[in-house]
């Protein structure tokens, strides 16, 4: 299961909203299947249909989605044939509720929750920062500050790799929970970058991961050094430059491109740098 975030589709697949995964198998294996199974919603959707404003969904539609989900849960619980089965179904429903249309449109398919202006900007960042030398079929990739894991979808959809050797980490437990639900085939961990590193990776990337200010200031030079030490082939990241207005600087980390480039060239032999590929960012790629 994955969402078609980066492909334009000529037709939009119909989505069965608010449905659950098949909850449990029948206990008697010889019993024929008589009940209609309730499947996880298919999330293949044209990314251009995303809703950027939560107000675009009416209150009546929100209520309809909610009522439908409640009814599906009631039907599944009522099908239990014993108290033990009822308890088992309740536990599985709690952990396996699918993504509703409302959640999909306003959260899971909304790049603004990750700080991107829109899907096209996110695509542009992925396209520019991921090194052209990266081979998704052979190279392991660590995505630092992965958010809800959309770089995995980029590798799957744009780079045409059915099984990317991808690992995503993020310190936000809610983002990781969403990523696991959105892309169950990918590997995600709720970890800080410095507390992770159980292994080395061919490439380590950070896509807009250090933009927002946090309680602990970012030591970007130390972070770059740590990324480089644990990469086999190289690293890549993007940062916001200092040419932002003062209001934005209150909540966003900014860095001087000239200072970062001068420092990188003094320390590493093979550095690639580009400024203003979008109107706010610069990126740095350092090869082994």
Structural description of this entry:
The chain is of the alpha/beta class and 288 residues long. It has two domains: 1-109, no CATH class; 116-287, Rossmann fold, CATH 3.40.50.150. The chain has helices spanning 59-78, 83-96, 101-108, 119-129, 150-157, 173-182, 220-229, 246-249, 257-267; strands spanning 141-144, 166-170, 187-190, 201-206, 231-240, 271-275, 281-287. A seven-stranded mixed beta sheet has the order 3-2-1-4-5-7-6, sandwiched between helices. β6 (271-275) and β7 (281-287) form a beta hairpin. The longest helix has 20 residues, at 59-78. The radius of gyration is 22 Å and the shape is elongated. The two termini are 35 Å apart. The relative contact order is 0.11. Mean pLDDT is 76; it is low at 8-54.
Describe the protein's topology.
Elements: H1 59-78, H2 83-96, H3 101-108, H4 119-129, E1 141-144, H5 150-157, E2 166-170, H6 173-182, E3 187-190, E4 201-206, H7 220-229, E5 231-240, H8 246-249, H9 257-267, E6 271-275, E7 281-287
Parallel strand pairs: 1-2, 1-4, 2-3, 4-5
Antiparallel strand pairs: 5-7, 6-7
Cα shape: elongated
Beta-strand content estimate? 5-15%
Largest sheet: 7 strands, mixed
Side by side, the strands of the main sheet go 3-2-1-4-5-7-6
Helix content: 25-40%
Average pLDDT figure: 76
Element-by-element helix/strand order: HHHHEHEHEEHEHHEE
Low-confidence stretches: 8-54
User: How many discrete domains?
Assistant: 2
CATH class of the largest domain: Alpha Beta
Second CATH tier, the architecture of the largest domain: 3-Layer(aba) Sandwich
CATH topology of the largest domain: Rossmann fold
Please identify which CATH superfamily of the largest domain we are dealing with.
Answer: Vaccinia Virus protein VP39
């Amino acid at each position: 299961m994955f969402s078609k975030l980066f492909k334009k589709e000529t037709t939009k697949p119909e989505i069965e909203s608010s449905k659950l995964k098949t909850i449990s198998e029948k206990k008697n294996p010889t019993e024929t299947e008589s009940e209609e199974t309730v499947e996880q919603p298919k999330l293949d959707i044209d990314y251009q249909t995303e809703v950027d404003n939560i107000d675009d969904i009416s209150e009546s539609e929100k209520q309809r989605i909610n009522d439908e989900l409640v009814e599906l849960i009631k039907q599944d619980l009522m099908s239990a044939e014993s108290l033990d089965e009822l308890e088992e179904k309740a536990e599985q429903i709690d952990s396996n509720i699918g993504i509703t249309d409302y959640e999909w449109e306003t959260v899971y398919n909304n790049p603004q929750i990750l700080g991107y202006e829109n899907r096209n900007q996110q695509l542009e960042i992925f396209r520019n920062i991921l090194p052209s030398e990266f081979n998704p079929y052979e190279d392991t990739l660590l995505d630092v500050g992965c958010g809800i894991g959309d770089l995995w979808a980029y590798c799957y959809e744009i780079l045409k790799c059915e099984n990317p050797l991808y690992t995503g980490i993020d310190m936000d437990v809610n983002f990781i929970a969403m990523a696991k639900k959105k892309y169950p085939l990918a590997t995600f961990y709720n970890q800080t970058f410095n507390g992770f590193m159980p292994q080395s990776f061919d490439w380590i990337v950070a896509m807009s991961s250090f933009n927002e200010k946090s309680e602990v200031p970012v030591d970007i030079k130390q972070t770059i050094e740590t990324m480089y030490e644990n990469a086999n082939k190289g690293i890549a990241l993007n940062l916001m430059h200092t040419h932002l207005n003062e209001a934005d600087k209150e909540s966003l980390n900014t860095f001087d491109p000239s200072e970062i480039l001068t420092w990188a060239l003094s320390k590493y032999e093979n550095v690639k740098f580009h400024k203003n590929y979008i109107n706010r960012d610069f990126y740095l790629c350092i090869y082994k």
